[in-house]
Amino acid sequence: MKHINSLIIIAILFAGSSLYAQPSLDSLLSQINKSNPTLMTAQSLMDVQVLDAKTGLTPYNPEVEFSYLWGSPAELGNRTDFRVTQSFDFPTVYSSKSRLSKINQKQAELQFRATRQEILLNARQAWIMRVYLNIRKSMLTGRLAYAQIVLIGFERKLATGEANQLELNQTRMKVMALENEINHLQREFSQNYADIMNLTGDFEVVIADTIFPITRPIIFDSLLTSYRAGNVSLFYDAEIDIKAKEVNVIFNQKLPKLKAGYYSESILGVKLQGIQAGITIPLWENARAVRTAKANLAYAETDADRYWQLKQNELNQNYEQWVYLKERVAELEELLAISNNEALLRQAMEAGEISLTEYFYESDFYFQNLLNMLEFKKEMLMLDATLRKVYF
Q1: In a domain, 313, yes or no
Q2: By the number of CB atoms within 10 A of the CB, which of 26, 191, 259, 277 ranks highest?
Q3: Chain centroid to CA 59
């Protein structure tokens, strides 16, 4: 009977049908997608970056010139000049700029997706914290309610001489201790509430869950593969691609620029007209631009390698910690399954099998282990969400 009762308590605390399947989390994520200030700002930034990437892909503006010159002496007559010209970069410049524009737009989208993943991670962790606090509050409230019942009983027994002042004082101290724990817990609720309101843009979402989700196994090699193909990693890859394409654009911009147009001149009743063509000689302008662009490319490649090395180390450390926490939870579950649970201890005290002091001692021991398991479970789920961020 002892084993069955303990397992029932554990099952109630940590049951769940799937990872993050609770309706309140769905409501939270839905509200965040609609009203999170950071996400809205990131969306606006992406729109600006996409528009900026599409700028500068067309040829230069055409130039129109008109001149009317009075002759002196008058016998020279007046002169009229008219010119329309269009300047062009070398044709390969436009194709290289177009490719650069597309990768810039892609990078802007990757940056937005990475920001969104971070926000969704914060939301899931805030939700896990709220569930953790709800469970703790439920446990403490139940213990306080029973302690108050015991206190009333001992006050009556003291009046009839069936109990002594020491037992009554012990019960009063336990009631006060539990009340203080609940008051302290309320401050954690307030912080969690503020965190959630910041995420939702001050839209309230009711979270009354007291059920943790079930965790799925994590295959580390698969996780590494997912992060290598994730938004942040692709962002760094895109940065390398951008710098490579900038080298190509700058190289093409060093090629001769072209100019073509129409020109006419009228003087003394004589009109001359025809076409104009010109070409720039790239001697001095942007002499070191290609070298600078290549240096930027080398830096981008080094920075991408640095990021991936740090990310691998971070994932490895988080995964090892996740495994450790999972093992600790399993150990505590096994310990609680063979311990005297709260219900059995109450029955034993009420039947006179153990004293009030023994009940409080055994109850506190059981509750502390239960609280430790709850704490480890919460930390494990927080880390689980961090590791799975790449899938959000």
Answers
A1: yes
A2: 259
A3: 40
Are 232 and 163 contacting, i.e. CB atoms less than 8 angstroms apart?
no
270/298 Cα distance (integer angstroms): 61
Domain of 121 in residue numbering reads as: 2-57+91-253+292-391
Taking CA atoms, 296 is separated from 85, 94, 210, 286, 301, in Å, by 36, 22, 52, 15, 9
Query: Can you tell me whether residue 372 is helix, strand or coil?
Result: helix
Q: Give a yes or no: residue 372 inside a domain.
A: yes
Q: Is 316 left (phi over 0), alpha (psi -120 to 50) or beta?
A: alpha
For 318-340, write each residue's pLDDT tens digit: 999 999 999 999 999 888 887 76
Query: Residue 88 pairs with which residues in a beta bridge?
Result: 258
Question: Within a 10 A sphere around the Cβ of 291, how many other Cβ atoms?
Answer: 11
Residue 90 is predicted with a pLDDT of 85
Q: Give yes or no for a contact between 261 and 276, defined as CB atoms under 8 angstroms apart.
A: yes
